């Protein structure tokens, strides 16, 4: 297992080599064509229920540490939040722990036209939503 010092050194080496731990929606679409990725949505559960990337797993950002053993280390992990800021913080910690993780640039506010979504379906007449 890596020491904390080794993990931090690796993290900063990645930064020197131009790795910024971000992936755009368009890039993610291309990656998803080539490999299976693990999408981690760290938003509030109710916002995840309204709309999320297809196949995403929801773990609220403050609970990620309690669920690290459920997140695969053998897949690229894409972390998404509202705007990308919280995801960037989670990604930094995950990379220190040895995960191949990156943040969805712009979060769920990015141009989602490139990506498959799952959303709650609403009945416009009654404005009631089905799960």
UniProtKB/TrEMBL annotation:
Rhodanese domain sequence ranges: 33-119
PROSITE patterns (UniProt xref): RHODANESE_3
Keywords assigned: Transferase
Enzyme class: transferase
Any Pfam family matching the protein: Rhodanese
MF term (GO), any: thiosulfate-cyanide sulfurtransferase activity
Enzyme Commission number: 2.8.1.1
Listed SMART domains: RHOD (SM00450)
Protein name: Thiosulfate sulfurtransferase GlpE
Organism whose genome encodes this protein: bioreactor metagenome
Gene that this polypeptide is encoded by: glpE_45
């Amino acid at each position: 297992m890596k020491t904390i010092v080794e993990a931090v050194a690796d993290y900063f080496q990645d930064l020197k080599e131009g790795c910024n731990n971000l992936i755009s929606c368009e890039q993610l679409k291309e990656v998803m064509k080539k490999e299976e990725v693990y999408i981690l949505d760290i938003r509030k559960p109710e916002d995840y229920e309204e709309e999320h990337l297809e196949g995403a797993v929801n773990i609220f950002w403050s609970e990620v540490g309690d669920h690290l053993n459920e997140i695969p280390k053998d897949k690229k992990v894409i972390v998404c939040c509202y705007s990308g800021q919280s995801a960037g913080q989670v990604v930094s910690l995950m990379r220190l722990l040895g995960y191949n993780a990156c943040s969805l640039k712009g979060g769920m506010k990015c141009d989602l036209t490139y990506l498959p979504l799952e959303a709650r379906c609403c009945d416009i007449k009654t404005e009631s939503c089905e799960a």
